[in-house]
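Narrative of activities, Objective 1.

The group set out to show that a structural description can be obtained from nothing but a protein's sequence at a throughput compatible with the screening campaign. Below is one input-output pair from the validation batch, recorded exactly as produced.
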Amino acid sequence: MSFQFTVNGDPVEVEATGTRRLLDVLREDLALTGTKEGCGEGECGACSVLLDGAVVDACLVPVSQAHGTHISTVEGLAAPGTLGLLQQAFLETGGAQCGICTPGMLMAGEAFLASGAEANEDNIREAIAGNLCRCTGYTKIISAIALAAERRALI
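Output recorded for this entry:
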């Protein structure tokens, strides 16, 4: 079957069975390898993408559910060769460690920033609750999202 959707602002069409995982289509068919597979069970959030603005685990979404939607991946956070506001904050605060959870954390953080919610520790923790990091105590990740929110407010 043929499925059409928009990825990072670009319309795409893929031929796939409807039950094929969105994660595999993104990585294998569209060469968007920034989205990582951690657990394959929707528990870790490493494969988080935004589907019509909502954070979803791409390992749990059949491509048929993506038909007609707008998907954002970590590759869409900034122009090639540059860093987006949130990515820069992760770099400055040391929010990225081994890199497995980072794309999912960035996407959850981006959804949080877009929500306009107050960037306090509790709200940020709730926003990233579906994303597990095995390297840190989340302190630097929370600091990065708070820093990006502070900077976004100045724009």
